[in-house]
Amino acid sequence: MSDAAAPPARFRATIEYDGTSFHGSQLQPGVRTVQREVEEALGRLFDRRVRIDLAGRTDAGVHATAQEIAFDAPPAWSPEELTRALGATLPDDVAARKVNHAVLDFQPRFEAEGRRYRYVIAEGGRRRPFLRDRAWIPQRPLDRDALARLAAAIPGERSFERFARSGQPERGTRCRVASAVWCFNDPPFLSFEVVADRFLHHMVRYLVGTSAEIAAGRRPCEDFERLLAGEAASRPVFPAPPGGLYLTGVRYGGEWNSGPEIPWLPADGHRT
Q: Which residues are catalytic?
């Protein structure tokens, strides 16, 4: 049987990307997306049209250190060959960290048990040109004790519709948040890490933006309680900018596809 006639093999890959110049991860007509770049790279390697499945959607400007994808490929390819070939074919702002065989019906989105995001803030209020698309730089200092108290209230299963952009999919607005914690790295950095079974559109950015407003003294703390309870707050929630957000892991079979680290960010000093 020729390679063209042989049934395809299923592969999975953990990819990372700098989201700055992408209009998000999912395929959209007429714009540059992560999915388009990866599919075109695989198409050149296999000389055929390729469609990939992603574990989750990231918006324009959002980064990933551990997005999981799956695709079909000619069976003659090995994971090692695919890793090397993708390294030579993908653009500079996307990389395949590891490629493995997968079962034929593996679907990274529906089989994911959890997802982990991290949002990075650089304190100080001054311009930092090299962090412009990597972290958010609030103009006011943030009360770290207040941030810790707010994060402690987040875990649990509830509707997060007040921390989401309008127009949710039919799956509803309930999410099960396993953990939410602020990590205090070497100055000037601090970051918010959250793990959940699923996330609503802009949910992490709304959680961070609203927490920062409260920690800066610009919004009452009671607003957070109302929003978590599904009630209206004193004014609409504020989303943190997309450039500080990173998808850092997807969990399958009880194991994460990557550690929680962001390559350029100093190690955590402590968490609270």
A: 59
